[in-house]
Design goal:
Distance between the termini: 28 Å
Mean pLDDT: 92
Number of helices: 1
Shape: elongated
Order of helices and strands: EEEEEEHE
Largest sheet: 5 strands, mixed
Structural class: alpha/beta
Strand content: 35-45%
Strand order of the largest sheet: 5-4-3-6-7
Number of strands: 7
């Protein structure tokens, strides 16, 4: 289940089970078919799970954490110019 970040299951006495699902929140598209969270977690959603208007980051997997760390700084640096970043390679 690519969209599920974590699941917590607990039992409440007498006879109740509580399930908490926490969804991953993508911050950008990663390479061609993946998404990436702000924590640098790469996941591959189903092809029908298109998330519009995300920036596109691209690079080898060992650079993902550096890129998601740098992206907000890049956005902040160009904000006074009223521009936005669509792709980072």
């Amino acid at each position: 289940l690519p969209w599920v970040a974590t699941v917590n299951v607990s039992r409440q006495w007498p006879g109740k089970i509580v399930i908490h699902l926490y969804e991953r929140t993508p911050m950008a598209r990663w390479n061609q078919h993946d998404l990436v969270t702000a924590d640098g977690i790469i996941f591959t959603p189903a092809p029908s799970d298109v998330v519009p208007n995300l920036p596109h980051l691209s690079g080898p997997p060992n650079e993902v954490f550096d890129m998601v760390q740098a992206y907000p700084k890049f956005e902040q640096d160009i904000a006074p110019l009223q521009l936005s970043i669509s792709d980072v390679y």
